[in-house]
Automatic annotation (TrEMBL), chain A:
Membrane topology: Multi-pass membrane protein
Major location (coarse): membrane
InterPro entries, per database record: ABC_transp_permease, BCAA_transport_permease
Record-linked CDD domains: TM_PBP1_LivH_like
Protein name (Swiss-Prot/TrEMBL): ABC transporter permease
UniProtKB/TrEMBL annotation, chain B:
Taxonomic source organism: Bradyrhizobium retamae
Protein name: ABC transporter permease
GO CC aspect terms: plasma membrane
Membrane topology: Multi-pass membrane protein
UniProt KW keywords: Cell membrane, Membrane, Transmembrane, Transmembrane helix
Subcellular location, record wording: Cell membrane
């Protein structure tokens, strides 16, 4: 039973990353009509940013949790201003191709300097050790990742669905021209949205640094799984992305316990099943 | 979908004549390669990728479907051919048939699943399916995992042509490439191809005209996957191995890049693009990971400034369809 709970916890953690990443993809797709293939590379940059802060500037985990997403978010906004904005009005496919190119560049540069092996990043002292919950041993850091990710996801949901800023954002998604006529600076909003989505990816990167080590290709395979998550959940609803992300993480964890050979593939197999049974995706609003 | 095709020209007798002349020039040029002293393995490899890119282009350029998983057909056909040739000891022609059939079967299944969604979702689904296959091949015993299937015998095609002679192999690969190319060209200019283009331009309208667009898309997907598989089977004889790199998503990305560089939706673009990218990889092989970075830069530069690709720009300049 211990092993089952441990795998469930690993599943929840992976689910947190799926949720944070697919949430960012959904937010970006809503505003920019672009599937951000560079999302995995930017997630990796978040982890590296935390690593650099610690090893070069001596800045620890807690400030990194704020600085890294902002730094990578600014980097993302520069990408949006200099490149992505020129794709407005073109076919969706060009956005995918451009961001795929960006992912190759970012990952290639990091691979040149850091190879393919992992760099260690220590768990902050406040979160070391574990708790005995009676039925299982809970490493505190892992519990923290799950709870914190959930809070961030819900905060993002609140921001977009319940605040005035979010209302403007949703309106601009529906009809940018009309929203501009109301005096709202839509291009700036698009840039900030991209920054927000990218920042969420970088935050996931910082959270995963102490668990998964910091590697140049840490986001490359993850992003493909996240794409499958997005296909399953659809990008129409923020809450849908969050729930699907966590649920698929848990299912993957369970698979690791019951049938480890399939743990790499279970999300893809589920995607196939969903496409066969409910072609429009679980939230049913997807194109 | 209009952005892909902002300057599509109607098929005129002149366009057909231009394309026929280009095809003849290409066939002659490629035919004299062994006499020039150019390293034939480079050209053979490029020809396999050129056919692969043409097959990919059939989907994106004429059907508007971006497949980000075409490496799965390359790899599957490669593994099927390699296994049949090495373990079962079949003849080369049978090996090609088995590899192509394997890719065809895969394209029926994956096509049925992936055409259920359009546009950007289609790209993500094909990518996810090819990743699924990658993990299956990684674990399946017959692929020998990371080692791949190596030392594949080349044998005698139809019992006559000795494929271990580079010149003979070259002309066999060239014949396969030209045959596949003509099949795609014929498809594009058939009534079926016209319906595909209609679906690319405006799917709801094609549906309202009574076309069962899903069937057309599925058939195009199967055709594309099968031809891609045929290219993969030919490649087994050139490289004499089948490995996981051929199924990896980076390979799918390279196929996309070749077509983009040459020109999406042009007849000859994928061929030119394949030669450019393969040549670049050869010359820059010593730069290690920088090749990936350069490929990324080409992607970005193409999308931002050069969306028509090499052949597309030339065709646009001369107001011809190539």
């Amino acid at each position: 039973m211990q092993a089952l709970y441990a795998q469930l916890l690993v599943g929840l953690i992976n689910g947190s990353f799926y949720a944070l990443l697919s949430l960012g993809l959904a937010v970006i797709f809503g505003m920019l009509n672009i599937i951000n293939f560079a999302h995995g590379a930017l997630y990796m940059m978040g982890a590296f940013c935390a690593y650099f802060l610690l090893n070069i500037a001596g800045i620890g985990y807690w400030p990194a949790l704020i600085i890294a997403p902002i730094a990578v978010g600014i980097f993302g906004m520069i990408l949006e201003r200099t490149m992505l904005q020129w794709l407005a009005g073109l076919d969706h496919l060009y956005g995918l191709l451009l961001t795929f190119g960006l992912a190759l560049i970012i990952q290639g540069v990091f691979q040149n300097y850091f190879g393919s092996s992992g760099l260690p990043y220590a768990i902050p002292s406040e979160l070391q050790g574990g708790m005995n919950l009676g039925f299982m041993f809970l490493p505190i850091y892992r519990g923290w990742v799950v709870v914190f990710s959930l809070v961030v996801c819900l905060a993002t949901w609140f921001l977009i669905e319940k605040t005035r800023l979010g209302a403007n954002l949703r309106a601009a998604t529906e009809n940018p021209t009309l929203v501009r006529a109301f005096g709202i600076n839509v291009p700036r909003m698009i840039t900030l949205t991209y920054g927000l989505g990218v920042g969420l990816a970088a935050l996931a990167g910082v959270l995963s640094a102490p668990i998964n080590q910091v590697r140049p290709l840490m986001g490359a395979d993850l992003i493909i799984v996240v794409f499958a998550v997005v296909v399953i959940g659809g990008m129409g609803s923020i809450m849908g992305s969050i729930i699907t992300g966590f649920a698929l993480g848990v299912i993957e964890g369970l698979t690791k316990y019951f049938y480890p050979e399939a743990s790499n593939t279970v999300v893809f197999v589920l995607m196939v099943l969903v496409l066969l049974l409910k072609p429009a995706g679980l939230t049913g609003r997807a194109a | 979908m209009s952005a892909l095709t902002d300057d599509t020209l109607p098929v005129t007798p002149r366009a057909m004549r231009d394309e026929m002349l280009m095809f003849a020039a290409m066939a002659v040029l490629l035919g004299v390669v062994p006499l020039t002293g150019i390293y034939p393995f480079f050209v053979m490899q490029a020809l396999c990728f050129a056919l692969l890119a043409c097959a990919f282009n059939l989907l994106i350029g004429y059907g508007g479907l971006l497949s980000f998983g075409h490496a799965m057909f390359l790899g599957t056909a490669g593994y099927c051919s390699a296994h049949a040739l090495k373990v079962w000891g079949v003849t080369p022609e049978l090996g090609i048939v088995i590899g192509t059939a394997g890719a065809a079967a895969l394209s029926v299944v994956t096509g049925f699943i992936s055409i259920r969604r359009q546009g950007i979702y289609f790209a993500m689904i094909t990518l996810a399916l090819s990743q699924l296959l990658y993990f299956i091949y990684l674990q399946a015993p017959f692929t020998h995992g990371e080692d791949g299937i190596q030392g594949i015998p080349q044998g005698y095609l139809f019992g006559i042509f000795n494929l271990s002679k580079p010149t003979v192999l070259y002309y066999v690969v060239l014949a396969g490439f030209l045959g596949g190319f003509l099949l795609i060209y014929r498809t594009i200019n058939s009534p079926f191809g016209e319906v595909l283009k209609a679906i690319r331009e405006n799917e709801p309208r094609a549906i309202s005209l009574g076309y069962k667009t899903d069937q057309y898309k599925l058939l195009a997907f199967i055709l594309s996957g099968t031809i891609a598989g045929f290219a993969g089977s030919l490649k087994v004889f050139v490289a004499q191995n089948a490995s996981l790199t051929d199924v990896h998503w980076t390979m799918s990305g390279e196929i996309v890049l070749m077509t983009l560089v040459g020109g999406l939706g042009t007849v000859f673009g994928p061929v030119v693009g394949a030669f450019v990218i393969i040549a670049m990889q050869q010359y820059l092989a010593g730069f290690g990971q920088w090749v990936t970075v350069i490929q990324g830069v080409i992607f970005v530069a193409c999308v931002l400034t050069f969306r028509r690709g090499i052949i597309g720009e030339i065709a646009h300049y001369f107001r011809r369809s190539l």
